[in-house]
Amino acid sequence: QKEVEQDPGPLSVPEGAIVSLNCTYSNSAFQYFMWYRQYSRKGPELLMYTYSSGNKEDGRFTAQVDKSSKYISLFIRDSQPSDSATYLCAMSARTNAGKSTFGDGTTLTVKP
Amino acid sequence: NAGVTQTPKFRVLKTGQSMTLLCAQDMNHEYMYWYRQDPGMGLRLIHYSVGEGTTAKGEVPDGYNVSRLKKQNFLLGLESAAPSQTSVYFCASSPRWTSKSNIQYFGAGTRLSVL
Questions:
Q1: Which residues of B touch A34 (CB under 8 A)?
Q2: Are A56 and A50 in contact (CB under 8 A)?
Q3: How far apart are CA A90 and CA A72, in angstroms?
Q4: A95 contacts: CB under 8 Å, gap ≥ 6
């Protein structure tokens, strides 16, 4: 079983919809939680970074971490066609040479 | 600010040929990583380095070698390419002595086909 499981998708929504992307994990040592966005034929880029449990908001994006359930989510409000991309969750432990374990990604398409 | 630069961007090899992928970063990062990305399989760590002159195996190291002779460069070598190594390869780097050493900065990728 993988350490990080991500909802596989693909996901297709109309413009303006609220999107929920989710990952579960099994390693209780994970303390840092990231969401990366990857446009087609590009490298991943950091979208959200959170430490431990709680919520973090940045514009239309909210990252949520529930360590007790080993569950993280990324919410996108008022989704736009420019949000169409693959979203990767990533997690790492405190002392692990910066290494992260990535989910397989969820591909999102926002239709105008 | 170039960030992480990968060369080449595309390459086609025949089975058994060798090649080297170059990654260069200008952010003075200590940590560097090589991943491969295959459809439906996310990013898998091949090798990584925690500093100049150091390398370590990741999740899928077989068939690859790496070197970190200079802090800013991380080379990935394929000694005898196989069709199973057809993939998109990403290099990434991250800083060591900050509160955000877990954030990785990625290059644009190298698309490799082995025929």
A1: 102-103
A2: yes
A3: 10
A4: none
CB distance A34–B102 less than 8 Å? yes
**What parts of chain A have a pLDDT lower than 50?**
none
User: B81 to chain A nearest CA, in Å?
Assistant: 23
The helix (run of H) or strand (run of E) holding residue B31 is strand B31-37
* pLDDT tens string A48-60: 999 878 899 999 9
pLDDT tens-digit readout, B37-95: 998 778 999 999 999 999 999 999 999 999 999 999 999 999 999 999 999 999 999 98
Q: At CB < 8 Å, which residues of chain A contact B?
A: 6, 8, 32, 34, 36, 41-46, 49, 88, 90, 92, 97-100, 102-105
Q: Using CB atoms, pick whichever of B58, B102, B109 lies closest to residue A32.
A: B102
Q: Is the pLDDT of residue B100 over 80?
A: no
Residue A86 DSSP SS3: strand
pLDDT band at residue B1 using 50, 70 and 90 as cut-offs: low
B61 touches chain A (CB under 8 A): no
For residue A9, the chain B residue with the least C-alpha distance is B40
CB pair distance less than 8 Å for A49 and B31: no
H helix intervals, chain A: none
Asked if residue B109 has pLDDT above 90, the reply is yes
C-alpha torsion A49→A51→A56→A59, nearest 10: -20
